[in-house]
Amino acid sequence: MKPAAELVLKPGKERSLLRRHPWIYDTAIGRVKGAPEAGHTVAVRGHDGRWLAWAAFSPSSTLRARCWSFAETDRIDSAWLAARVQEAVARRAHLASASDALRLVFGEADGLPGLIADRYADQLVVQFQAAGVEAWREELLDALVAATGCADVFDRSDSAGRTREGLAPAFGIARGAEPPSRIAIREHRRRAWVDVRSGHKTGYYIDQRDNRELAAALALRSREQQRRPVAALNCFCYTGGFSIALAAGGGGVMSIDSSADALALAQENWQLNGLPRDAGQWHEANVFEALRALRADGRAFDLIVLDPPKFAASHHHVERAARAYKDINLSALRLLAPGGYLLTFSCSGAIGVELFQKIVAGAVIDARVETQLLRRLAAGEDHPLRMTHPEGEYLKGLLLQRL
Ligand code: SAH
Asked: pTM of the entire structure?
């Protein structure tokens, strides 16, 4: 075998590698030895020549290489990759009783930078978001099929991230048969239809599983404490995951989304769960405006969920996003009945937990309501955060109660 090409870092740039951070930017590289192509495994060396990591080379991206391993004796081959896939799948085995919609591989967190693999019942859905995993596409697909016993894999590598890696979007069957137009999944006691072709991400917001379960528990708790049905509001409802959870309160659930398609599927999901038709109210509207209109109507709710799309696409958008988060949180707090709960989220990676809490605190001050923070929330265990890669954190939430 010919020796791997090498990336020699500029002086001082080995520091983040020594902390096992997996990303190497173009600006950190002093010299490329050999002629690596996209996805080739390269040895990363410090300025002084010492070996640091094995990484996948990505010539088109400013994120020029992503590390596979910090152990020099590792050989990055199909067996090594299959072991990483197998371990990632095995680590999630205990979650199967909670749901059959699970994230099986979460990129950097699982040591497979840029690879997403989700399971919906017996269907797998993948995203190859970096040159490294793209180069090992067939081997990784084989490994996923072997680790799960699922024969059908659909490729949703149609997200924007691929362009930065110099990869064309990919969409279609990767293994096995065409997926059904809808797949029924189970999440705790609830069910949902998932469309893996046109749904957001790979079809569904798997990451909110635990928080939907919390919403159901809070709805039930409020109903017992208040001895009356709970009035609930779900903003940015998408296909109604939180709406169905909130129905545990036994009262009306109002759901708002700007997408007619999402609302249509949400209503079918409501029916799939056998919920009374008249208990669900569905509004195709802009949440920013709808919340103001509800206030003007003098409405109040015992439980409100705010789960907006990513307002800050990058660090450049933080200020504008902060204003948007404050706006919806302020409006929601004004609609919250005394004793009521607010579940508020941000999935913007560029907005950290602390900043998000500050923004929501600002909304609390302006709304002139007293609230307590009862819990900080995050994505489920199938979306772990690799401690050496803090950039992997994105979903954060707060559970507030109005006093
Ligand atoms: N809570 C959902 C996921 C929300 S995804 C779940 O648990 O599955 C964000 C949703 O916000 C999308 O469905 C999108 O259509 C909707 N959306 C985006 N901007 C909006 C706006 N300004 N007003 C209303 N809905 C919006």
From this structure: 0.97
Closest CA relative to residue 203, chosen from 182, 176, 177: 182
Could you tell me if 108 and 68 are in contact, meaning their C-beta atoms sit under 8 angstroms apart? no
Within 13 Å and on the Cβ side, how many CA atoms surround 222?
A: 29
pLDDT one-digit tens code per residue, 177-189: 999 999 999 999 9
Q: Which of the residues 67, 235, 237, 347 is marked catalytic? A: 347
- Token readout for 342 is 């607010």
Match 């508020």 to its residue by tokens.
344
Residue 347 known to be catalytic:
yes
Ligand 1 pocket: which residues have CB below 6 Å?
205, 208, 236-239, 241-242, 256-259, 262, 286-288, 307, 309
| Region 5-69: CATH code | 2.30.130.10
CATH architecture of 206-402: 3-Layer(aba) Sandwich (3.40)
pLDDT exceeds cutoff 70 at 396 = yes
Task: Tell me the pLDDT of the chain averaged across its residues.
Answer: 97
Q: Which CATH superfamily is domain 78-184 in?
A: RNA methyltransferase domain (HRMD) like (3.30.750.80)
Query: Within a 10 A sphere around the Cβ of 218, how many other Cβ atoms?
Result: 25
Q: Report the half-sphere exposure of 379 (CA within 13 A, side-chain side).
A: 20
